[in-house]
Amino acid sequence: MSPDDIARNMTGQLSDRPDGGRQALLPSPMVQNHAAFIERFEDGTLACLWFGGTLEGKSDISIFASTLAPGSDTWSAPVRLSDDPNRSEQNPVLAHNGHHWQLFHTAQPAGNQDECLLRARNITLTDGILTAGEPRTIDLPLGSFIRARFVRRADGAWMMPVFRCIPRPGQRWNGSHDTAAVATSHDDGNTWTLEEVPGSIGSVHMTIVPLDGNEMVAFYRRRQSDFVHRSESQDGGHTWSEPRPTDVPNNNSSINVIRLADGRLAMVCNPASAATSPDRRTSLYDEIEEGDDRPDATGGCAPVWGVPRAPLSLCISTDGGKTFPLRRVIDDSAGTCLSNNSEDGRNKELSYPYLLEGEDGDLHVAYTYFRRAIKYVHLPKGWIDGETA
């Protein structure tokens, strides 16, 4: 579809898919919509959050949300939940601290991810509409980014997976010194401490998945565009092993992993890598870097940008995430992402997916569609095993 075709279909209305699922393009007033997050509230309402504006990194990028009430076939009109005129507000994450829901998100000036602030706001759902309270800044080092769900440790501590965009004095951020860390809070998110994941340079978007007993695993997007990486914790999330590659290729784009009710792990991602495509771009923000004459950061790892972000696939593991042999395509396109532009039709990415299992074993997926819209797909129970195709 062209950008105009996509815009005409951004109604939030669910329609049937040939595979037995349903889908919709969520409504939004903005021309760029990216980085979906999906969660279910206590009354069964689904909430999808994302960031929208004209171009990632621009100061008009804000957090938006839409909801789907139980039994409804149409997503609600979008609401804006943040509006800082000086920073690009990105990567929304909803978390419940045991008392109320909170929205966490990033806020950066232009493409300078190493100058990012983390902010939190209380969130209320009333009659299907989300509203946000006043923001507060999280006391973590500049350049702390989030993307994944928070996890509770057995001792009650709240774990927030973080990737750190490490500042390099006099140099421009390019992802070459990004590392993973876990921020922990013992007071429901009022204060945080930070612990680094060893050997994690280039391993970002840490997603923590509790297994049985004290065992947890984490999965990582890779700046080097090689493979999804995995690390382990055998002490309930207190310490982590160095990330090691799985068998799933990664294109330096976001992934999401959950544990299903049947014990299997499900990863939604683009199983592509630098080895599968020659496509390259200079950096994530090369379209808005005019006037910034600093040299790119040197040393660290060698990030690879521009590898196509497609297909969008669901991958299943039965061995705790060491291998993912069962894979099915949810959506496909050329995946072209050599530009972040949402209006000229060059961008064809299906990216930044988020996954949620329903109470009946069905699956809810939300992801970026050509940077123009957020697409929602509902897959019935058994879809991954081919039982409903």
Automatic annotation (TrEMBL):
InterPro entries: Sialidase (IPR011040), Sialidase_sf (IPR036278). Its EC number is 3.2.1.18. CDD domains: Sialidase_non-viral. It comes from Pelagibacterium flavum. Gene3D superfamilies: 2.120.10.10. Keywords: Glycosidase, Hydrolase. Pfam families: BNR_2. This is Exo-alpha-sialidase. GO terms for molecular function: exo-alpha-sialidase activity. Coiled coil: none annotated. Residues 1-22, 228-252 are annotated as: Disordered. Residues 44-365 form the Sialidase domain. The keyword Hydrolase applies. It is an enzyme of class 3 (hydrolase).
